[in-house]
Write a structure and sequence with these properties.
Strand order of the largest sheet: 4-1-5-9-6-10
CATH topology of the largest domain: Spore Coat Polysaccharide Biosynthesis Protein SpsA, Chain A
CATH architecture of the largest domain: Alpha-Beta Complex
Largest sheet: 6 strands, mixed
Order of helices and strands: EEEHEHHEHEEEEHEH
Structural class: alpha/beta
Radius of gyration: 19 Å
CATH superfamily of the largest domain: Spore Coat Polysaccharide Biosynthesis Protein SpsA, Chain A
Strand content: 15-25%
CATH class of the largest domain: Alpha Beta
Number of strands: 10
Number of domains: 2
Shape: globular
Distance between the termini: 25 Å
Length: 235
């Protein structure tokens, strides 16, 4: 608990993955990938409960060993490739509240695919949320070095292309000095008010940024996994 707010960390870890089979329990430096997110959450003094949402009993045994709880199994209809984060996180929140018989004020979402985070992102994100009364959520972001004004997509028929920004006249011709600063969401952490989730969104309309500096490590492919194995850990 922090400033009278009860805080729940949710780590989503389905067993199915087309890119890497059982990706969330693949070993990196002797530990399954999901271990690093559990360890990170356990270091944060603000977290009241750490829950893993998974559809696998095998995963439950693994994460329980590292100190996370699995008070429910995720249903198969929430474990498919096309399922978005919102229904998974809402399901985990409501089932956790029913199990623990308490209402959580803040939810911290930690994806296992971002194992090596900067220090104190949980504490920083919660402080941003609490200091800004209009906030609906906080997301970790980096300044993007590839501006969307310069991005193109195919037109219908896939022969010629058009810029992806439609609200401006020829944004791809705007000088760099006049381009607004843009950010890329890293996936390291999302911190969300309960009311935002209950009202139908994982982000809400007033998203506040938590700017990170560390190189993004998001594990989706075998190449990503092999690169992660080469990283020298400092803690």
């Amino acid at each position: 608990m922090f400033k009278e707010k009860i805080i729940l960390a949710i780590i989503p870890a389905r067993s199915g993955s087309k890119g890497i089979k059982n990706k969330n329990i693949k070993k990196i430096k002797g530990y399954p990938l999901i271990y690093y997110s559990i360890k990170y959450a356990k270091k944060a003094k603000f977290i009241d409960k750490i829950v893993v949402s998974t559809d696998s009993k095998k995963y439950c045994k693994i994460v329980n060993k590292f100190g996370a709880e699995t008070p429910f199994l995720r249903k198969k209809n929430l474990a498919g490739d096309g399922v978005q984060d919102y229904p998974v996180v809402l399901d985990a929140l409501l089932k956790s509240e029913n199990f623990y018989k308490k209402k959580f004020d803040i939810i911290v979402l930690l994806r296992p695919t971002s194992p090596f985070r900067e220090k104190n992102l949980i504490e920083k994100s919660i402080n941003i949320l609490l200091k800004n009364k209009a906030s609906t959520s906080v997301r970790s972001m980096k300044i993007s070095n590839k501006h969307p004004y310069r991005h193109w997509i195919f037109k219908k028929g896939r022969k010629s292309v058009t810029g992806i920004i439609k609200k401006l006249y020829e944004p791809y011709n705007i000088p760099r000095q006049k381009q607004p600063e843009v950010f890329y969401q890293t996936g390291d952490i999302e911190t969300i008010w309960r009311t935002t989730l209950i009202n139908g969104s994982i982000s809400g309309k007033n998203v506040y940024p938590l700017i990170t500096k560390k190189k993004i490590i998001d594990i989706d492919t075998i190449k990503d996994l092999n690169n992660a194995k080469k990283i020298k850990l400092t803690s």
